[in-house]
Amino acid sequence: MLCGVWCPLGKNDVIDQWVEYLPQLKGSIHVFEGVAHFVEEVKPKEIAAAILDGIVH
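Now predict its structure.
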């Protein structure tokens, strides 16, 4: 799961809820600093690197 820190989905309490209901996300969440919901529009290279580095499974 990739999200931005400014996005409501990127808040710690919301991430905890995601992991509670989708435990397979544990260890596969990356929150990008300085962006909101549309991370792919702002950080496409960083997303590609995260996928290649195995952050995203």
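Residues 4 and 32 are 5 Å apart (CA to CA).
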